[in-house]
Amino acid sequence: MSSESIFEPSQLLTILQQRETFQSNELAEQLNIDHQKIVGAIKSLQSHEEGSHEYRVFDLVGEQGVPKAIIDKESFGPIGFGKAISAGWITTEVKNGVSLVVRKAKLVEDKARHELKQINEGMHNLDTKTIGNLKKRKWINEISVKALIVSKGANFNENLSKPELDLTTEMISTGSWRSKNFKKYNFEAMGIIPQSGHLHPLLKVRAEFRDIFFQMGFSEMPTNKFVESSFWNFDALFQPQQHPARDSHDTFFLT
């Protein structure tokens, strides 16, 4: 049994029938199950027999009330106290200088226990919110079961054989291809993507420099003017008249 399997409370009853007693951590190790799943199943059984955590707190408080410390000592105390407060079943007040937890409601209905009992009896028409609350409290696990309908097809055969993928020379020479079952071609299947070309290394370097300038804040000025006058190329940039860049061997001049 793997640690991912679901452990039902009914399985605990079967184990108790066989062993009479067990320790939760040892049982989890023997069955290779997460210990928290064993604990959840135990809590589910307790809730089914003794009531929910909040109902047990309400019952513990009684008519006279009890100190909060007594509730905290119980395993169901912290969770049950919070839920009983939220439900308006109990409240806290000071009597004779002592802080007590007292009942706020005279009669309460343990809905959680009733809902769990409905599920155990096979009633699964509870609303989504109720099921979600029970799952959060680890009282139930939801299992999805899928069923498949199987029927005979046109090519039904009791002999299992894989369809042939290729037409070989041997099949043609022996004529065995006539009795072979070939796999149908899927003409809509995507073919192998052909290898495309790639950029020249110099163009890659040029593109990298271009991206660097863009990241620095420069913008590319669209132009189709590949020939520029000396004024815009040199004078407008305040380049000296005797600058070496103006020489004919550094700049292409058109006449």
Automatic annotation (TrEMBL):
Q: What is this protein called?
A: Phenylalanyl-tRNA synthetase domain-containing protein
List this protein's GO terms for biological process: phenylalanyl-tRNA aminoacylation
Q: What organism is listed for this UniProt entry?
A: Meloidogyne incognita (Southern root-knot nematode worm)
- Gene Ontology cellular component annotations, sorted alphabetically: cytosol; phenylalanine-tRNA ligase complex
Domain annotation Phenylalanyl-tRNA synthetase: ranges: 184-254
Q: Which PANTHER family match?
A: PHENYLALANINE--TRNA LIGASE ALPHA SUBUNIT, PHENYLALANYL-TRNA SYNTHETASE
Upper lineage is: Eukaryota, Metazoa, Ecdysozoa, Nematoda, Chromadorea
Annotated PheRS DNA binding domain residues: 10-49, 52-106
Q: Which InterPro entries match?
A: aa-tRNA-synth_II/BPL/LPL, Phenylalanyl-tRNA_Synthase, PheRS_DBD1, PheRS_DBD3
User: Which UniProt keywords are given for this protein, alphabetically ordered?
Assistant: Aminoacyl-tRNA synthetase, ATP-binding, Ligase, Nucleotide-binding, Protein biosynthesis
Gene Ontology MF term list: ATP binding; phenylalanine-tRNA ligase activity; tRNA binding
